[in-house]
Amino acid sequence: VQLQASGGGSVQAGGSLGLSCTASGSIFSVGAMAWYRQAPGRERELVARAAADGFTDYADSVRGRFAISRDNAKKMSYLQMNALQPEDTAVYYCNAKLTVYSTGVGYPRINYWGQGTQVTVSS
Fold this sequence. Notes:
By secondary structure, this protein is mainly β. A hairpin with a 5-residue loop joins strand 5 (45-50) and strand 6. It has strands spanning 2-7, 9-12, 17-24, 27-38, 45-50, 56-58, 66-71, 76-81, 90-100, 109-113, 117-122. The strands form two sheets. Strands 2, 4, 5, 6, 9, 10 and 11 form a seven-stranded mixed beta sheet that branches. Strands 1-3-8-7 form a four-stranded antiparallel beta sheet, with no helix packed on it. The radius of gyration is 15 Å and the shape is elongated.
């Protein structure tokens, strides 16, 4: 079971980028999916989250500029980032709570992280 992030890159201030995250493997169900970011010298912070029922929430710093969505059938999440600013520069990580198949009793729900993808915004 893994999360694979794609997208990112470099853009000038005011530009747009999109990120994608795909969950794969022996997955029974996908719970909340989220995107976090970590800038140099700073702690990892939540950017946006989408619950399984579609409810979304955002960090104040990105609300109105970023949009998270998910495709439950494809086990994917997306982060559309518009009006990017230099302070959005960070490594972005996708996250998902996945209930995975198990040969044991019950299916465990595990918090998975994708590999980071760099987003760089120049002024």
